[in-house]
Amino acid sequence: MRVAIEEAKRSLVAGGTPLAAIMVKDGKVIAVGHAQVGKLRDPTAHGEAECIKIAVKALNSLDLAGCTMYSTVETCSMCLSCGAWSGLTKVVFGAFKEDIVGNPYEFKNYHAIEHVKNLQVPWTSENIEIIGGVLKKDCAELMKNFKNWAPN
Q1: In this predicted model, what pLDDT tens digit does every residue of 54-107 receive, in sequence order?
Q2: What percent of the residues of the chain are helix, what percent strand, and what percent coil, each to the nearest 5?
Q3: Is 117 left (phi over 0), alpha (psi -120 to 50) or beta?
Q4: Residues 6+ away with beta carbon under 8 Å from 17
Q5: pLDDT: is 119 or 96 the higher one?
Q6: Pair 129, 89: CB distance under 8 Å
Q7: 141 by DSSP, 3-state: which?
């Protein structure tokens, strides 16, 4: 998670959103994704979605079984669905959506951890393991003063 936090800080310094995700397989970081929704004018360019895209290219496979994705913020429904379709084994995130003041980009009554029992990898019927609140305070702090939520 500390690597994801450092990536989020790098994104902010570069003028981006302080949200990041990393993909780990066999103890090695194989992909890094930064939220680029505003920069790319692409509503699907969340940090986790970008991380998944990079990981499947790095592995030259659509199968991310055995991979763990670490995200600084609770993974949204779109990104979790991408993870399910790619066979992702585990998602670990830091701050919950309620920890991010002014976050308008998730369903009000949706929580990743509550829906894990229903989120299965399509071809294996295995659940994606989801762990939330890891370094929660540090991850929430990244977003504390971020105000540029509105798309331009």
Answers
A1: 999 999 999 999 999 999 998 888 898 888 889 899 999 999 877 776 665 555
A2: 35, 20, 45
A3: alpha
A4: 11, 34, 35, 36, 37, 38, 47, 146, 148
A5: 96
A6: yes
A7: helix
Quote the Cα angle for 25-31-32, to 5°. Answer: 130
**Alpha carbon distance 75, 33 (integer Å):** 13
Catalytic residue from among 7, 48, 74, 106: 48
Residue type, 89: T
Q: Tell me whether residue 48 is one of the annotated catalytic residues.
A: yes
Whole-prediction pTM: 0.87
CA-based nearest residue to 133, from 89, 88, 72, 77: 72
Half-sphere CA count of 16, side-chain side, radius 13 A: 20
Q: Which residue has the tokens 């009554």?
A: 109
54's tokens = 């990079």
Rounded Cα–Cα distance for residues 15 and 56 (Å): 27
